[in-house]
Amino acid sequence: MLGSCRLKKPNTLRLALHAADKRMCEVIQENPQVLKKWVMGSKVERLQNLILKSRMLKTKFLLDLGIVDDSNEMGKALKVFRGSGAKIQERFDCIVEAGFSRKDVCEMIKASPQILNQTKDVLEKKIDFLVNNAGYPVSYLITFPSYLNYTTQRVELRLAMYNWLKDEGKSVPMLSLSSVISLSDKKFINDYVNSHPRGPQIWQNSSSIKSH
Fold first, then answer.
1. Rounded distance, CA 62 to CA 192, Å?
2. Contacts of 79 by beta carbon, 8 Å cutoff, 6+ apart
3. At a CB cut-off of 8 Å and minimum separation 6, what does 202 contact?
4. For 170-212, what is each residue's pLDDT tens digit?
5. Helices (H), strands (E): how many in the chain?
6. Do 91 and 123 contact (CB within 8 A), yes or no?
7. Quick check: helix, strand or coil at residue 141?
8. Do 112 and 133 share a domain, yes or no?
9. pTM assigned to the model
10. Which residues does UniProt assign to the signal peptide (predicted)?
11. Domain that residue 15 falls in
12. How many domains does the chain have?
């Protein structure tokens, strides 16, 4: 994005925004799109105004969906959901378009709010992997929305190791996807990887391949 925008000089921005460098960095991290409003020739709004507008959009979004219906909860919710109101709406719509009702997605978000802190592209890739690689119906997310909080690499490694153990004839308990990927690394390695003499080597090889 920086390559496509010719930004105003830092000193000019500080004066126009009435903000210190640290606060400017925080706003950029939360909503990189704001850089487009700071290009040469554009009129720059005070940072406080931008923050208030973003907060209003988030508040409206949460109230409209009924995710938060108590003013005491709103402050906590606004801290949980990162990004602009428009971006949060885009992510919500992305999950709906995967095949869910708005009600279902609201329940998923209530159970695991952090899923809306990922970009639309990341959400799409994780849902695609769940359905087309792991072989689960998309409706599984209603039961286990936290799946979207885990990296695809983690899910792929855990499933590959678990399935390898079964193929090797190792007696392993029947586990749900949520159990396979939510175990801590230490417990998964102790309970499953180390349960087979060749397990550690297979795990190490798979980890090396997936990291490249």
1. 41
2. none
3. 161, 164, 193, 196
4. 877 788 999 999 999 999 999 999 999 999 999 999 888 765 5
5. 12, 0
6. yes
7. helix
8. yes
9. 0.72
10. none
11. 1-45
12. 3
